């Protein structure tokens, strides 16, 4: 079955999904995006994702292309047309098509594109063994809280991770503290059992999965704190993991050349992953 995309009011074969060459997303990366997980045919944390999309649009002063109700209808139809059971819905909004000039165009109409695809769940072996991350210098701009389509530093970091046999690259600020991964949030568990993740300032993207994990941790009475942590502290941690809409909770068992813990997924990481998967199948599917 050929994939179906949505482009500016029309459902089209994926191979015919196109935007104009002078769309500002192509010319200037003048746009934002959002990704929603689909589990068992239902979207997870849909409303928080749409809240973040609205915030990103407002921060860049891009007009909203349609009402939330209409957007939700398009998302559901796209899932249906593509027969997605477990997968992702990707949506991108740009400032639209206009003559190439840096200032905002006066009468541009925002462009909106949505696609959907199936994904495979990580194997149990991958979860148990965990993954490797490397550390790299954070070279991004100062508004990482906006989910912008301008991702070149993230791409370079992810490629460096792949070339070093790693799942992810954790970016490090000028003070030697981890900000986040190129496409995920970073977490550690200290030797005292405290769960630590970077606070949601303009230095990181406030992950929707991140917020759900914090909510689950609080409900379970886990000790957690939102603060900066250094690369050195991370390498001495009892456990570490990454989180995102696609990584869920992925245990990290190696940072650069340092093995974390006993080299296997830790108890707290595995427990949070199980809790999140249960959340995604239940409460999160109605959020």
Polypeptide structure, described:
It is a single chain. It contains eight helices and 15 strands. The strands form two sheets. Strands 7, 8, 9, 10, 11, 12, 13, 14 and 15 form a nine-stranded mixed beta sheet that branches. Strands 2-1-6-5-3-4 form a six-stranded antiparallel beta sheet. About 40% of the residues are buried. About 30% of the residues lie in helices and about 25% in strands. The mean pLDDT is about 95. The longest helix is centred in the last third of the chain and has 15 residues, at about 265-280.
What's the structural blueprint in terms of helices and strands?
Layout: E1 4-7, E2 10-13, H1 24-28, E3 31-39, E4 42-43, H2 46-59, H3 68-81, E5 87-94, E6 111-118, H4 124-129, E7 131-137, H5 152-163, E8 168-172, E9 178-181, E10 185-189, E11 195-197, H6 208-219, E12 224-226, H7 231-235, E13 239-244, E14 248-255, E15 258-259, H8 267-281
Parallel strand pairs: 7-8, 7-14, 11-12
Antiparallel strand pairs: 1-2, 1-6, 3-4, 3-5, 5-6, 8-9, 10-11, 10-13, 13-14, 14-15
Describe this structure in a few short sentences.
This protein has 287 residues and is an alpha+beta fold. It has helices at residues 24-28, 46-59, 68-81, 124-129, 152-163, 208-219, 231-235, 267-281, and strands at residues 4-7, 10-13, 31-39, 42-43, 87-94, 111-118, 131-137, 168-172, 178-181, 185-189, 195-197, 224-226, 239-244, 248-255, 258-259.
